[in-house]
Amino acid sequence: MNQSITTDLTDTTCSLCHCKHQTFLHDVLYKRNEPDVLIERYELRKICPSCVLFEHLEFYCPECFDLHDGTGEFICCCDCESKTHLKCLSDEEDVTEFKCSTCNHPKRLIFDLKELKDVKPRVDNVPWKLVDVQAARLLLTSARIADKLMSKARDESLSYAAMRANEAVSYREKATGAMSLFEKVKERNDRPFLLDRSRET
Ligand SMILES: [Zn+2]
Ligand SMILES: [Zn+2]
Ligand SMILES: [Zn+2]
Asked: If both were cysteines, with which of 21, 25, 131, 141 could 46 make a disulfide (CB 3.0 to 4.6 Å apart)?
């Protein structure tokens, strides 16, 4: 039996955790281990906000959810790759063997929209859902990470394409040099051989 996956199904399922019926999925380019095939270096995946956040802990502060920009002081978690701004910690926080808030409370990164039960469902019986402050924060940070990953992939693809173009130019120059050398040798071999018979007489 021929079976095909409908766009609806693929568009609402996270390709990492396979959670279904996601309202928000980010397009993220994932790198593949095939460095010589330009067109297949990245594959486009649809990933839910929580997976984007869990997969890229090193990109943002787990307290304020701002992306790291290389400035400010921060402390690294002893259990994961996240870095927490010092300014985001309270003075009483114990920073020896520091464990970040994501490691302590991983559920904080679960992107959850609350259903509004008191509001009449829409025409198609899909209930209204509420994006509260924490959900909005998770959505915004995951969107910024996805954007950053897309820009990085684009820049890497451009520099890879430029590198291959330079290689092509250098191969062409080598081929042109080899051809002109070949022509010279051929020309010398094709020249009529004149016998010097003067010494025979
Ligand atoms: Zn997911
Ligand atoms: Zn922070
Ligand atoms: Zn951690």
From this structure: 25
